[in-house]
Amino acid sequence: xxxxxxxxxxxxxxxxxxxxxxxxxxxxxxxxxxxxxxxxxxxxxxxxxxxxxxxxxxxxxxxxxxxxxxxxxxxxxxxxxxxxxxxxxxxxxxxxxxxxxxxxxxxxxxxxxxxxxxxxxxxxxxxxxxxxxxxxxxxxxxxxxxxxxxxxxxxxxxxxxxxxxxxxxxxxxxxxxxxxxxxxxxxxxxxxxxxxxxxxxxxxxxxxxxxxxxxxxxxxxxxxxxxxxxxxxxxxxxx
Length: 239
Ligand code: SAH
Prior knowledge:
Layout: H1 5-12, H2 26-42, E1 51-55, H3 61-68, E2 72-77, H4 80-92, E3 101-105, H5 108-114, E4 119-125, H6 134-144, E5 145-156, H7 160-173, H8 190-199, E6 202-213, E7 218-222, E8 228-235
Parallel strand pairs: 1-2, 1-4, 2-3, 4-5
Antiparallel strand pairs: 5-8, 6-7, 6-8
Bound molecules: S-adenosyl-L-homocysteine.
S-adenosyl-L-homocysteine binds at residues 2-3, 7-8, 11, 28, 56-58, 61-62, 77-79, 82, 107, 125-127, 130-131.
């Protein structure tokens, strides 16, 4: 199976604090509005009624926000305790999402066997850099899409600047995210992600950098993809 169990344990252990917007996952909360807007804009400004699968959803920061924007969302992850925190948060926060938000502990490759071609949108954010074989995840994401559907990926570039900012700065100097969150060797260059997407039959539509301001705790989209970046891609209509 394409999973690093140490990664799953690491994220699972954070479940209790995941929704604390001042806690160890605060940067995910802070970047979420920018990610949501990138996805919404890429979907012609509307998420209403779209069938979305959020791959590596964790405790559902993005999944729940997309469901609250009108999408029908399935969040998948292998960290059971993070999924439990996701379900609990959705339940205790109104309005009721029981008809439009669901979470499952299943590997994306297995879901692709079960539900190929059944989603309008796949999101896979801050997850690819935590798996042994990101190409396998990207391929499964493409399989889950209907022809013409869109996949959104977000991850971290691999170069000296991203090492300084995303690992040394964020984990050790500023303590923005827990130490050991990222492994430099597993970071992914945009050219590598685009190759994986192309190999999976996905065509790039948009590539943007995300600049994070640690003082204000805010993020914005930029053209510079040297550290954090996001992309939107599409499966061919005749695939
Ligand atoms: N996408 C979420 C969470 C990012 S944290 C967000 O951006 O808000 C990375 C997540 O990837 C964790 O929840 C971790 O459990 C999950 N993950 C790591 N390896 C995985 C795998 N092989 N299959 C599914 N999820 C995985």
